[in-house]
Amino acid sequence: MIVLDVLTAVLLLLGGLFCALGGLGVVRFPDLATRLQAATKPQTLGLLLILVGSALQLEPSNAAGILLAGLFQVITAPVLSQLFGGVAYHLGAVEEDTLLVDDLAERLDASRR
Known about the structure:
By secondary structure, the protein is mainly α. The protein has one domain. It is built from four helices and no strands. Helix 1 packs antiparallel against helix 2 (32-55) and helix 2 (32-55) packs antiparallel against helix 3 (60-91). The termini are far apart. The mean pLDDT is 88.
C-alpha cells in the first residue's frame, strides 16, 4: 500500500527532524532550563512520531510493544526533566536572572517557616 508507505516516510522524517531540532537546542540554548526543555519536549514528540511510523509497518501484535515503549517515554521524560531541574536548582546551576518567576524559591521559603 503506497499510502501507508508515504505516511510512514512522513512520520519518520518528521520524527527525525524533531529529534535533530531538540539536539540542536541542547547544544545552542544558553542555560540549563531551556536545555532541559529542548531535551524533553521535541525529543519525546520526535520519538513518538518515529515509533508510530514504525508501528504502521508492523503486525498489530508487534506494534503494541512499540507503542508501549512510547507510552513509557511520555510518562518518564517529563518526570526526569523535573527531577534534573530541581537538582540543578538546589545545586545553584540555574541562573536566577534568567527566571521571570521563581515559584520554587517561594515554595522553599514557605516550607522553611
